[in-house]
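Q: How do we represent a protein-ligand complex in a form that can be generated token by token?
A: Start from the inputs.
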Amino acid sequence: MGKTIIISNRLPVKILKSAKGELVYKPSEGGLATGLGSIYRKGNNVWLGWPGLSFKKDSDKTEVTQKLKSENMFPVFLTAEEIKLYYEGFSNETLWPTFHYFNQYAIYKKSLWEAYEKVNKKFCEALMEIAEPEDTIWVHDYQLLLLPGLIRQQMPNVSVGFFLHIPFPSYEVFRLLPWRKELIDGMLGADLVGFHTYDDMRHFLSAVSRISYLSNKRGQLTKGNRVIQVDSFPMGIDYDKYANSAASPETIKREVRFRASLGDQKLILSIDRLDYSKGIPARLGIFDIFLQNFPKYQKRVSLILIVVPSRDKVEKYKELKREVDLLVGRINGRYGTMNWTPIHYFYRSFPLEDLSAFYRMADVAMVTPMRDGMNLVCKEFVASKLDKKGVLVLSEMAGSSKELSDAIIINPNDKTQVVDALHQALTMPEEEQSLHMDTMQATLKRYNIHHWVKMFLDRLEDIKERQQSLATKRIDEETVQIIMDKYTKSKKRLFFLDYDGTLVPFYSRPEQASPGKELLEILTSLTENPNNHVVIISGRDRKTLGSWLGHLKMDMICEHGVWLRAHGEEWETIDSLSNEWKSDIKPILEMYVNKTPGSLVEEKDYSLAWHYRKVDPGFGDLRAREIVSHLKYLSANMNLQVLEGDMVVEIKNIEVNKGKAACKWMERYPSDFIMALGDDWTDEDTFKAIPKDGVTIKVGSANSEAKYSIENHTGVRDLLGLIAKNK
Ligand code: GDG
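Then emit the structure tokens for the protein with GDP-alpha-D-glucose bound:
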């Protein structure tokens, strides 16, 4: 069992230099640090990241490294220049605005990108000093999108998880980035890619399909010979920590003190890092309109506005700070009186006890970001409400709105709606408040930070096990030897070879997949051996396959078993097959072709196929699902079967399948060596039909009944070429 390595831009520690020049270490209290605390502090597990200061002196670096080592941390030292270009630059001025749909703020500069690449490599180098093949590596967030890919190059089999804490934008926004392909490839270095919400996950999958042309099945992608899982893991908070802190005597003492100076008025709470994604100016605008529309609340309600300094060297943040200062001044100047301040504004951070006191005191929390990956403040507010009194007004643009549906959910751009929501919150009966709090607290207690960590790591372990079980099936030199031994000892051999995806790659038009010179040579030498009986078993029509391969000494099973021909004989078909259904189904498929540019209908003797390889990716999948449910409904009483292949939906007579056809052939040609190769799920029927001592090989990486797997059609050709060389 290896160790677990957590990697994030920042280590969960703050290092400060005292006036005397000594280094002072303060542990970070962030949610992530708490959640992962139980992981990285155990055994020889470790957290790797930037310690938060740039050190020039080697003696300082040695001291920091040694001190952090005793806390299971490992530093990556970054220079002031690297911080400026990689962190403040590419991470916060290119990725952050793009991922939060503020793409008009994003800057695209090659020098920033190069620094980002360089620092990601630096993280990878630091990791290589401590990582071992059996370790589990968990990379966090947008500053390190390239890291999973870099790790994969160095350690092809190590277990890597990646979690993005901010939103993943729609493809239409993501595509604006000049480095979109590199970023996607970097993330796909992970075995498990996690997001806060389902929406982030589907945006990512859509970007992957459009940029890297990889389609997914229930969030599972296959890249080369590696299976990658994409899923959502909504991050929770350390519920007990906030509930206990709210109950602590120190918090209550502070609440009493704050209350004494604020008097008996209603309180609205707003807490965020300084960031344009958090919608602070819009929130102030709402408060202004509220005081105007509901004048009776003047002198009876105050807004406590806590803005935690953040990224204050980035220009957009400096501008935002000026805007917030101005708006607060304007509102306080306009409505304030000698003994009432509408907004109590703090531009600093507070210790946990103060924060808990604010959460306890607030009648309403306004969490109205324009866009937020998750947002933990709203969850902490709910956990701190021990008496279940209080109302949460929550933006639908925050990931947390998906879980906290008992909050008053608003669109932060709809001012009228938010003003009304604020009024509704301030007038909500206590009984109703308790009801909503109760539901939200139950959710947050259950899906807490420990649950999140466990879900992610368990899932990563699952996917690794799955990859390993697929890898053990993967044909290697040893298995090739076993197959060759069986082959050379046998006298009568039967081969079932699927065509598309097995002997040739996929093409956008089915008629482009004719066999080239190389394939014809391999098949010729395989079929010329009098002990070999080779059968092409395919979903294709007999005319095409006949014209491409008919001159070879091989049998053919076409259209999934509708048409069969032994070499030198006439085509035969299954008696009593009806074709009448085609006149009902074909117009429907044609209608879908009209509605779906790039798609086409292929008519075979006893089946119809709707191909969508050339259709815009997401759109094609959507239409395929529509067609499948439409056809399943129609074909229920028609003795038909609807098959979903690789970029094709096929409808055919239910009595026909490759397995039945293969059985017929095995009866006709008893053999002491049977081998079957195929790539899609119609080939599973063949695999099931082959006796246990046969050799069944799945092309690709999905789960299969087959005994072995092989990477792609090139691997198949190599293997058949090798076999054909033996007598
Ligand atoms: C990113 C994503 C996602 C705030 N003021 C004080 C203080 N805080 C603490 C809060 C909370 C944390 O900071 C803020 O977390 P958020 O989730 O609200 O926002 P981001 O910092 O933008 O975090 C976000 C998160 O990552 C996790 O994945 O939810 O969407 O943007 O814990 O309590 N803590 C103290 N004093 C303060 O004054 N002690």
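The chain has a mean pLDDT of 93. Residues 29, 31, 165-166, 235, 271, 273, 306, 308, 349-350, 352, 355, 372-377, 380 surround GDP-alpha-D-glucose (CB under 6 Å).
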